[in-house]
TrEMBL record:
Record-given protein name: Sec-independent protein translocase protein TatC
Family under the similarity heading: Belongs to the TatC family.
One GO BP: intracellular protein transmembrane transport
Transmembrane segments annotated in the record for this chain: 37-55, 93-112, 124-151, 171-198, 210-226
Subunit structure: The Tat system comprises two distinct complexes: a TatABC complex, containing multiple copies of TatA, TatB and TatC subunits, and a separate TatA complex, containing only TatA subunits. Substrates initially bind to the TatABC complex, which probably triggers association of the separate TatA complex to form the active translocon.
Cross-referenced HAMAP family: TatC (MF_00902)
Cited PANTHER family: SEC-INDEPENDENT PROTEIN TRANSLOCASE PROTEIN TATC, SEC-INDEPENDENT PROTEIN TRANSLOCASE PROTEIN TATC, CHLOROPLASTIC-RELATED
Role, per record: Part of the twin-arginine translocation (Tat) system that transports large folded proteins containing a characteristic twin-arginine motif in their signal peptide across membranes. Together with TatB, TatC is part of a receptor directly interacting with Tat signal peptides.
Amino acid sequence: MSTPLEHQLPAPLATQQQSALEEMPITQHLMVLRKHLFKMIALLIGLFFCLLPLANKTYQVLSEPLRAQLPSTSTMIATDVTATFMAPFKLNFFVALLLAMPYILYQLWAFVKPALYEKEKNLALPLLIGSICLFYIGISFAYFVALPSILHFFISVSPETVAPMTDINSYLAFCLKLFLVFGFTFEIPVITLLLILIGLVSTEQLVEKRRFIVVGCFFVAMFVTPPDALSMIMLAVPMWLLFEIGLWLGKLLEKRRTV
């Protein structure tokens, strides 16, 4: 029995592609995957060592929002002997991974591309590019908007008798968690579109359940952000707005299908 995907290309071409993939042994698939993995790892290692001389400066850039909020009598501290080396080292790997991410996703795309039909390729590529851009936008929002506001709130409510001095490893872990949370949160439009594309939900169903989705945004934000109302609002509101953007794009997509 033919599947719907087989009708997205002319029958002879679809049959040829499917036959070629079926005839390829599993070992050849693994060899192709290994080639792409080598390229990804080589770029990641290369970027890591190229950025390593700038590791301390990179950490200074990361700590700037905190140092701007600290009183003049306070400073950042290291509670472990190796912290002054390991914190910039970990941050350097994270930055290298961020810079290499488009190339890593491109290599994964190149691996799965032969198995996709033409219509799937036309849909997958814009979604892939959009997800990368949204992830970077989410991290930028976290660094330039959310992080300074959250730090200002916590330092402003600290008792006068307590001098805030943050450990550099703790601050790094806090920032990386915040960046990843906002980065993945900004993928909501892409996730919404994918759910509509595969037919799991429709825009009408999402509109009907909008109130529950909005409540869910605040519920999720309450658990993944620091324990304060400001952090929760700064994550939940963008989640809701991004859902609305994804819903709007989904409605446009459904209209194009009916035309």
